[in-house]
Amino acid sequence: xxxxxxxxxxxxxxxxxxxxxxxxxxxxxxxxxxxxxxxxxxxxxxxxxxxxxxxxxxxxxxxxxxxxxxxxxxxxxxxxxxxxxxxxxxxxxxxxxxxxxxxxxxxxxxxxxxxxxxxxxxxxxxxxxxxxxxxxxxxxxxxxxxxxxxxxxxxxxxxxxxxxxxxxxxxxxxxxxxxxxxxxxxxxxxxxxxxxxxxxxxxxxxxxxxxxxxxxxxxxxxxxxxxxxxxxxxxxxxxxxxxxxxxxxxxxxxxxxxxxxxxxxxxxxxxxxxxxxxxxxxxxxxxxxxxxxxxxxxxxxxxxxxxxxxxxxxxxxxxxxxxxxxxxxxxxxxxxxxxxxxxxxxxxxxxxxxxxxxxxxxxxxxxxxxxxxxxxxxxxxxxxxxxxxxxxxxxxxxxxxxxxxxxxxxxxxxxxxxxxxxxxxxx
Amino acid sequence: xxxxxxxxxxxxxxxxxxxxxxxxxxxxxxxxxxxxxxxxxxxxxxxxxxxxxxxxxxxxxxxxxxxxxxxxxxxxxxxxxxxxxxxxxxxxxxxxxxxxxxxxxxxxxxxxxxxxxxxxxxxxxxxxxxxxxxxxxxxxxxxxxxxxxxxxxxxxxxxxxxxxxxxxxxxxxxxxxxxxxxxxxxxxxxxxxxxxxxxxxxxxxxxxxxxxxxxxxxxxxxxxxxxxxxxxxxxxxxxxxxxxxxxxxxxxxxxxxxxxxxxxxxxxxxxxxxxxxxxxxxxxxxxxxxxxxxxxxxxxxxxxxxxxxxxxxxxx
Lengths: 427, 316
Known about the structure:
The complex is a heterodimer of chains A (427) and B (316). Chain A has 2 domains: 1-55, Roll (Urease, subunit C, domain 1), CATH 2.30.40; 57-364, Alpha-Beta Barrel (TIM Barrel). Chain A is 29% helix and 24% strand. Chain A has 12 helices and 18 strands. In chain A, helix 4 packs across helix 6 and helix 6 (211-227) packs parallel to helix 7. The relative contact order of chain A is 0.17. Chain B is globular, with a radius of gyration of 19 Å. Chain B has 316 residues and is α/β, with parallel strands linked by helices. In chain B, the strands form 2 sheets. Chain B has a 5-stranded parallel β-sheet with strand order 7-6-5-8-9. Chains A and B meet through helix 5 of A and helix 4 of B. Chain B: It is an enzyme of class 2 (transferase). Chain B: Heterododecamer (2C3:3R2) of six catalytic PyrB chains organized as two trimers (C3), and six regulatory PyrI chains organized as three dimers (R2). Chain B: Belongs to the aspartate/ornithine carbamoyltransferase superfamily. ATCase family. Chain B: One of its GO terms (cellular component) is cytosol.
């Protein structure tokens, strides 16, 4: 592959926490050289003038749901791949909560092959931790890891049997496998559609207390302390859970935590008049919780921001709020929504990018997610300030269930590169 | 006349002058209902469909009677027995009915917000006959009319709503209405049956009946919604009756002329002593039922007037 020279770009380096004018030389799908300042392109090399826009490592998104197998009418690898490329997401770690669950090496291999044929971005499948995500018997963690499982998770099915969970954690630790869990007390949260509080009381909806998340996290962290496993909490959403996370990190446990973009940018009142596109799991929380999550990302206590991309068709959402499915698509809105935090001056760009690319890449043991020589040339070029009004029907995702429909956003992807190859370009 | 609403989905969306307009009209329908002819042609030529996705005898009968007295063609649909079983979605059911050109759709649904959803999809007037734990606006309006007639006013009164607040749409609609009309609202019940952060709604919360009833003008009891509970909200019915059931002793803490209300159906000996319920000097429970028909007549009349005033939109 011939060389590529990207110049006149504001380079976001999440590792050095800098944002500087510079250029990149791309060779053999990797970042070969990093130049600072306004460097002119050398002769005889394909060059792209980035016009002073921001060039950053591509987003590494942990927890993307794709409807293959089982619900391809909601999202396929092809549509999700196109959405990811348009959203500046260069690596998707996909969820195993498919139908059936990804719980055998054979299905995992099939999915990995399908994914990499159909999607222009990197797809790294996660596997279930227990068979059928039923919380009873662990999957073949060794075989699955050898088949390419990047992490193990039962997603929003909380393993209630502490013996099963502690054994799975112990076995995973012996293989160095990462376990991702959804911290939630399953009994307190049963049947809940929103977070408890004034809004839930006003709307008369079944609600769960934020305390259920803290209880779930405390339980998980106790078992991590017991077993020494590598653990990642997929989405935290409440201030009440943060002290437990801080204690675990300070005591040296191998623990990281994530937050979904929706819990950083929306709150419980956005549900308004029973708008089901705002029904997500865990539910949108109070404004105090939202601000606590933003602070936690800014301080590094929360490591990773995810889209928690969850496609749902219209039929799953056009129902009374309690009956409607949870989840929102977010691959294409992750970047502009995250930039809201920058425009609101709640977080700086390099710190935000650490949570979007570097930290998730490090957690998954990937060489991408950073601007470094020899790192994969997975990159996103974006205009920080370009304004637009989101029209959900313009999304490339097969499902259009975004809570940002009709909202003003700022920040547009201009181009996305995977291994040095341009996979998306805006006009 | 001042009534602008297109649907009656909840008290939340009504302004105080709209509430007053509706109650004034309902007063005239009380007179009509007490007269010999009991008939008006206010809704003549209009079709009213009652869609009940949840069992109801009293509310459905009240709406049916209200429609018939105003000359509407009334159809009742017991939705549990029909299309839901065949897997049809709420919206499809609504669109099917909409194609039959009803003018008034009265809906009860077990899930909060379901009636709002349905109202978005049809081009007739929708009346909420109770959705989940959200709202039951005609109940709050009939309670308001009952209070206004008994007390001579609907402002600056102290009203205690007692019992299972958490599972009660009646309580929600009433506290919103009474707040809008500038009354003091107290909620009395065990903390396990109190919605979270309810004190932020400008109400006072008590878990002791004697304190909660002290010097109130109106005591509004709620049905203990046994069928709605997963279990374990209260230790036992008898302990509930002992601590929260309305009897003469607890009622003595309220004003001497305080009235006693209950939306029905009552559990005598659980939330209310039968002697209190039947005390014609204190209990207005039968009047509530009577006001219910009049209020529903007024609500449907006003919505129908707005419907006739507007050119009909065509939904495609």
